[in-house]
Amino acid sequence: MTTTVIPVVVIGGGQAGLSVSWYLGRAGIDHVVLEAATPAHAWFDTRWDNFTLVTPNWHCRLPGYAYDGPDPDGFMTRDEVVDWLAGWLRTFDPPVRTHSRVSRLANHPGGGFELTVQTATGTQTVICDHAVVATGGYPLPITPPWARSLDPSVHQLHSEQYRNADQLPDGAVLVVGSGQSGAQIAEDLHLSGRTVHLAVGGAPRVARTYRGRDCMTWLHEMGLYDRPAAQYPGGQAAIEKTNHYVTGRDGGRDVDLRQFALEGMQLYGTLTDGKDHTLRFAPTLTAALDHADAVYNSICADIDAHIEREGIPAPPASRYEPVWHPETETSTLDLRAAGVTSVLWAIGYRPDYRWIEASAFDGSGRPMQTRGITTVPGLSFVGLPWMHTWGSGRFLGIDRDARHIADAIIVDHKTFHSVTASAS
């Protein structure tokens, strides 16, 4: 086992970890980025073929680099995002060690941290003063424990494994979950001609465009993406809710589950349990659709107030009116009778920091941090949803968050060397 000593280790080579590296490199701080696969691999490996951003292209900003293409108000496809990130990586030379998975982070007896790193050639030890965890907020896909009791002939996969309709067996598909991924994958399957059944959860929705502009452009202008999490209306309960569903596909549009129902998609309430070929649903569909529409209209009303307050010329206000209502709440589904051959789980992810041996987590396993910095000296996080603002975890907020983390490390590094120099 080899041992390496280095001042700073960034764990994770996605856009957040590489952004911290960008600032550390400019400051001349010796560091390394340990990446379990290859830089920004998640964009290629875990997005479906027809994936598009749901935020406008002008949101795409990373240190020293911003989208400057011909369609700032459009939405890049997965492949375009990969190319854009590759262009950013060509602007600097981050010290990345690929295929280096950190399996353990613990306090080092001499101070700082000791990391156990698994590589293709064996196990290595890395000792550092600062560790920046940039592995993403929720790496483990969730499936319900009773999923294993469904008939083995039913093909099951998580949303992160979905690529396109052709990878699934012939037949209808049940998508479970209506957050951003679930709603967009249901749309993708629907547009491909598949019969789709969708178990609708509690996710809200938002208009794609309203009164002449993209809603996310309005919200940015209103300061919503810059407001610290602690000051956000509704508090912790509000920021922990699922993100609003909308799509950037074909230039961007609303995702209207009621319209899908008119076109033949079968909608249900929350999926509660199942066995063999029988699934059961709670009678929550009507309430879920009404709630999503209420949020949609509430956001439009907030934009109306902003327009009036600022005296901005804009087209007239409007409100969404439902185009379909469920006549009854279906409580069960016989997969075999309905011809459903695949179940796609899109019910989210959960955190997994079991490899970190430090008192930096709350009772639910989430990092206790302020703008990414924990009370454990030298340990910080970056790239978490709502780490500081609504923009955290998105391209729009990564630069600011990474700069804050890097600045704290740079100040600590310079202070240490200044004290050491004075002592000698």
From TrEMBL:
Keywords: Oxidoreductase. InterPro entries: Auxin_biosynth/cation_transpt, CHP04046_FMN-dependent, FAD/NAD-bd_sf. GO terms for molecular function: flavin adenine dinucleotide binding; monooxygenase activity. It holds the Pfam family Pyr_redox_3. This is FAD-dependent oxidoreductase.
